[in-house]
Amino acid sequence: MDLSEFDVIFSGCIKTSLEILELSYTGLTGQLPEWLWELKRLRSLDLSNNQIFGSIPASLGQLVSLEEVYFNDNQINGTISESVGRLSELVYLDLNSNFFVGEMSEAHLASLTKLKYLSLSSNSLALKFEHNWLPPFQLESIWMSSCILGPDFPEWLQKQENILILHMTNVGIVDAMPEWFWSLISGAYYVDISDNQISGRGQFSLESSWENCLIVGIALQHLRVFDFSRNNIFGGIPKSMCSLSSLNSLHLSNNNLSGQLPLSLKYCQKLLILDLGYNEFSGEIPTWVGRRLISLQFLRLRSNKLCGNIPPNLSLLGNIQILDLVGNKLSGTIPQSFGNFIAMTVIRKIPSLLMHVLEVYYMESMLVSTKGGSQEYNKLLTLLNIMDLSNNNLIGKIPTELMNLSGLFGLDLSGNHLTGEIPEKISALQQLESLDLSRNNLSGGIPHSMANMSSLGFLNLSYNNLSGEIPLGNQLLTLFSDPLVYMGNFDLCGFPLDRSCKGSETTQTSNHIDDKNENEMIWLYISFALGFLTGFWTICGTLLLKKNWKICYFRFFDNTFDKVYVCIMMNFRKFAL
């Protein structure tokens, strides 16, 4: 329904008395109508999550009683009028996820002394403030992802003393982290400044800067989500991590962090997500990870320089759903105890909530490698069960205990030095959609039971020492007919490879196809023969049994022959003359 059609409803006494107008998630379309700006006593205006388009007119500044404005998740475009700055009673301003363009300056926020919640994320806005600008407000929640705040770290943030949520991903900051940043987030629950180019300059590092926060008396004890990923931070994880006892989610991936995993992390016992991938961490995986971080659901240590054996007591992480140790220098065998991951035996159909931040659900996300590629998961993240130990130096057999993980979605053991055979019980992993065992030293045949793994959508067994005939049927025949799946196994034979299996009556699917075609041709010839015989005996049998029909039949042929003979002879005499 077009919003302009409501003008009759919002007239008369309603126009002069209405204080709250909430029409979110109602499928409204059209532009913001003029009658809206006549609701002078309006304190709360919520038109979020609709399909409203057009621009916000300067008339918005007439609603001087407004305390809450929610225009988020629409298709509103154009620039934001400076008349917003006249709404002196405004506490909540949410313009998130629209198509706003242009700049916002001090004039847009000039009189907003009561503003606590500011959301401008997912727009194409540039915030341009004077270097010495003093904001008239004290914000509690700042959402500005994908806006332009950089290249310098915004100085006006230094004056904000009540920050609970700070979300500034991909805002174009190319600067060193200022020392006052830790004071800024001292009482915060949620901090996300990922996807920038925040870096260390001179003697700066994450470690020294974070340690300084203790010197000035800051513990960050309320922090629950901290995302510093995809920046240029170097140094080590500081010892002061032990003070973050409420931390649920820690993302420090894609930086230049180094050193060993510090003992201080073991005090973060409420961690659900620990993502330290793509750094320079070294040393062994500490045994206390399995003993102390018992709430972990997602552990991502990929692409570091970790070495040594995998601690068997990681299996104590009963809630773990994603275990990603890819691309390190881990050695030894895969612990048999890895078959005890309880959460990997659970099949989930409905996404669950990971956490709440200030009564608001926080949408966790993580880049997950599966099916030969990588994909960012958020809403569906809690449905996944994945074990990825690829590209290490692991030896020994594939533990049969892994076949107990009946809820496993993806298993990647590629790029190691594993030996022995593929476990015959691998077909017990009926939920498995992605299996990569390539680039190992596995031997023996491919279990025939794999043909019954109905969920399997990605398979790579290449570059091993597998032998024998490739099993045919179901998944292996229909989905994995690409020779690349099996290449590098020189003793494998059968379809889809061009090597026949000696002594086998059905060595290649092409033979099966030829046999099938041959059988079809035989049946076709038999059908023709039966049809001919049926027609022949239908006629001849009738003639033999019916005397009158037989006389008529032969008399017809005699008359026809006479006519043809006479016609030919007359034409012959004509041409002879």
Textual characterization of the structure:
With 577 residues, this protein is an alpha/beta fold. Among the domains are: 158 residues, Ribonuclease Inhibitor (Leucine-rich repeat, LRR (right-handed beta-alpha superhelix), Alpha-Beta Horseshoe), CATH 3.80.10; 32 residues. The longest helix is centred in the C-terminal third of the chain and has 37 residues. The strands form six sheets. It has a 17-stranded parallel beta sheet, with no helix packed on it. Strands 15-17-19-21-23-29-31 form a seven-stranded parallel beta sheet. It has a five-stranded parallel beta sheet with strand order 2-4-6-8-10, with no helix packed on it. 17% of the residues lie in helices and 21% in strands. The protein contains seven helices and 36 strands. Helix 6 packs across helix 7.
How do you describe this structure in short?
The chain is built from seven helices and 36 strands.
Shape: flat
CATH-defined architecture of one domain: Alpha-Beta Horseshoe
Strand content: 15-25%
DSSP, total strands: 36
Structural class: alpha/beta
Low-confidence stretches: 505-516
- Per DSSP, the total helix count is 7
Average pLDDT score: 86
* CATH class descriptor name of one domain: Alpha Beta
Helix content: 10-25%
CATH domain fold name of one domain: Leucine-rich repeat, LRR (right-handed beta-alpha superhelix)
